[in-house]
Design brief:
Shape: extended
Radius of gyration: 25 Å
Distance between the termini: 82 Å
Helix content: 25-40%
Structural class: alpha+beta
Number of strands: 5
Order of helices and strands: HEEEEEHHH
Length: about 210
Amino acid sequence: MHKFKFDREQIQMVVALVTVAVVAVLFLGLTDMVTREPIAAAQKEALNRALMQVLPEHSNDPLADGFDMEVNGSPERFFPARDKSGHITCLAWETAAPDGYSGTIRILMGVFPNGAVNAIRITDHRETPGLGDGITKNQPWIDSFIGKRLDNAHWAVKKDGGSFDQFTGATITPRAVVKAVKNGLEMFMANKDKLLAMPTAKKSEGDKP
């Protein structure tokens, strides 16, 4: 039986590879530690900016006042706009269109208690530049959702007999967004009483006067 022996050169190569691997792991870990907080802060700020665009004037901090509620078996996060009395005047949440042309489209929508859309904003998408990205750049189309309820619009693109325009050369993308917003409104109407009854978020000890 032959014994396998490492020569000096092979040992040096193994040590070098192990050293490189250890340094790479340490570098990745350090990079994650350094970037985690700035990334989280940037995401929080982006969400807050989007909330300001889909919610009307309010007397609270919708981001800090957000609450979770289980919908269709999974937890969803909701962000309320409240008046000075603490009553919810509008509610925002994110819905998803899984059937976009290039993948899932995430949509933040603000809805009044009567089920009318205040505004929508696309928070994430991979749609084709110059075609499907009209969902973020075509402001008149984005604004066409304002005031729409389940009962005052035909929730489809005009090509399918609906109330909403499609884009030249790109019907799949707006079709997916229209469908997702409609689904969001249906969810809201089915859970409206529970959602609007959610109390104001409790203040922490440090918030007490």
